[in-house]
Amino acid sequence: KAGVTQTPRYLIKTRGQQVTLSCSPISGHRSVSWYQQTPGQGLQFLFEYFSETQRNKGNFPGRFSGRQFSNSRSEMNVSTLELGDSALYLCASSLSPASSEQFFGPGTRLTVL
Amino acid sequence: GESVGLHLPTLSVQEGDNSIINCAYSNSASDYFIWYKQESGKGPQFIIDIRSNMDKRQGQRVTVLLNKTVKHLSLQIAATQPGDSAVYFCAENTLGSYIPTFGRGTSLIVHP
């Protein structure tokens, strides 16, 4: 079956702009988590969605937000982009929040100029 | 907050050798640990996990060892192959939390 897909794969924005990233989980998976990966900070948890509800949120400013749709697809939005938001944004899906194994997508590489 | 870290940033081995990647954690409440492999241009891939009520778990060519006394876990890869070249990192979690904390990663380079 198809894996987790993320669009777009690459994105270049300028400071102050906003961006929306999309994630389609594996068919049947209802839990979606988002992570930010940078060379300096490594992989950091952003938020987790299940049944269209945000269940957990990491330590990120309110400029980072997300949502999940009824088909389990998820989007994350970053407003008022800063240079430090340049990162690889990863989405991971699992059957449910209780599932130990998450399946990651290839990520969206965001560059903020 | 508490963090998970790795001892070695880069590990170079010869094909066929066994590799050992180490990870230290500081949260004594952590009861679930996962090892991931991330190849260039790809997202992390689940390798193996272990719960705190175990001290060893084996998979295909991989073994994870957990030492709760010193808060240390390791990933052993047997007969390392060039395809094993990637960044490996550990993650810790508390069952019921679903908010994992990831280590910084170790780059494994396998020379043919």
Describe the structure.
The complex is a heterodimer of chains A (113) and B (112). In chain A, a hairpin with a 2-residue loop joins strand 5 and strand 6 (53-57). Chain A has no helices and 11 strands. In chain A, strands 2, 4, 5, 6, 9, 10 and 11 form a 7-stranded mixed sheet that branches. In chain A, strands 1-3-8-7 form a 4-stranded antiparallel sheet, with no helix packed on it. Chain A has strands at residues 5-7, 10-13, 19-24, 31-38, 42-50, 53-57, 64-68, 74-78, 87-94, 103-104, 108-112. The N and C termini of chain A lie far apart (37 Å). Chain A has 113 residues and is an all-beta fold. With 112 residues, chain B is mainly β. Helix content of chain B is 0%, strand content 54%. Chain B has strands at 4-6, 10-14, 19-25, 32-38, 45-51, 56-58, 62-67, 72-77, 86-93, 101-102, 106-111. In chain B, the strands form 2 sheets. In chain B, strands 2, 4, 5, 9, 10 and 11 form a 6-stranded mixed sheet that branches. In chain B, strands 1-3-8-7-6 form a 5-stranded antiparallel sheet, with no helix packed on it. The interface between A and B is medium-sized, with 21 and 20 residues.
Percent helix range of chain B: under 10%
**Secondary-structure class of chain A:** mainly beta
Oligomer: heterodimer
- The number of distinct helices of chain A, counting runs of at least 4 residues, comes to 0
Global geometry of chain B: globular
Work out the helix count of chain B: 0
The tally of strands of chain B reads: 11
What's the gyration radius of chain B in Å?
A: 13 Å
Strand content of chain B: over 45%
- Describe the largest sheet of chain B: 6 strands, mixed
* Outline of chain A: globular
Q: Whole-Å distance between the termini of chain A?
A: 37 Å
Secondary-structure element sequence of chain A?
EEEEEEEEEEE
Low-confidence region ranges of chain A: none
Distance between the termini of chain B: 41 Å
Mean pLDDT metric of chain B = 88
